[in-house]
Design a protein that fits this description.
Elements (H helix, E strand, L loop, with lengths): L5 E4 L5 H10 L3 E5 L11 H10 L5 E6 L4 H11 L3 E4 L5 H10 L4 E7 L8 H5 L5 E5 L17 H10 L4 E3 L8 H8 L3 E4 L4 E2 L2 E2 L1 H18 L1
Parallel strand pairs: 1-2, 1-8, 2-3, 3-4, 4-5, 5-6, 6-7, 7-8
Antiparallel strand pairs: 9-10
Helix pairs in contact: 3-4, 7-8
Length: 222
């Protein structure tokens, strides 16, 4: 039997959205910190409230734009999470420093897939990260996620094949295309924000459709 694809619902904006995502079966909840661009940022106080109140099976993850080990660790401590999603292509030394100073903090390193050069980051980051997340931003333009764009799944599939770490797939996923994404890329998990939202709010119908599509894809792989 194929392993179950994990689901991370991002841009969680309130305890109510966190509860909705958890009831739907989300494994991880993304809490977006201050970002140069993109949807869903919330303040540390609200993020901490969500992290403290979320269901025990849906782990909160802080999306952090800081690029130093100290900055990321301090932000995670303020919010009270056990995992961070590092949205910039930070220097490998910074990620290594975070692993050394906060070894109990899960470190999901984002890799923005613009071309085949994304594959070169596997060896640089994998000794210090606990997982990867493939997204569709443009770091040079300070676009660090939440684009709603699909990137080249051919590169993503090769990244998954080569990576020694679990890999989440993000970037333009919806209930309509997530099944094909899982079939082609075979990620450990999938992640999305805008694909299950209407006018910025988490939509129960879209969320249910997304979870059903993931489950169907898993059954078909099995």
């Amino acid at each position: 039997m194929a392993p179950r694809t994990r689901v991370k619902i991002c841009c969680i904006a309130s305890p109510e959205e966190a509860a909705l995502a958890a009831r739907a079966g989300a494994d991880l909840l993304g809490l977006v910190g201050p970002m140069p661009t993109g949807p869903g940022p919330i303040g540390d106080r609200e993020a901490a409230k969500i992290a403290a109140e979320t269901a025990p099976w849906a782990n909160p993850v802080l999306l952090a734009a800081e690029e130093t080990a100290a900055g990321i660790a301090e932000h995670a401590a303020r919010v009270g999470v056990r995992a961070v999603q590092i949205v910039s292509h930070v220097a490998p030394d910074a990620l290594a420093g975070l692993a050394a100073t906060a070894p109990g903090l899960g470190r999901i390193q984002v890799v923005h897939v613009e071309d085949d050069e994304a594959l070169d980051l596997i060896d640089a980051y994998s000794p210090h990260a606990t997982a990867f997340l493939l997204d569709s931003g443009r770091p040079a333009a300070r676009e660090l996620g939440g684009t709603g764009r699909v990137h080249d799944w051919r590169v993503s599939a090769e990244f998954v094949r080569r990576s020694p770490l679990p890999v989440f797939l993000a970037g333009g996923l919806t209930p309509l295309n997530v099944g094909e994404a899982i079939r082609r890329v075979r990620p450990f998990g999938v992640d999305l924000c805008t694909g299950v939202r209407v006018d910025g709010a988490l939509d129960p119908g879209l969320l249910a459709a997304f979870m059903e599509a993931v489950q169907l894809a898993d059954r078909n792989q099995g």
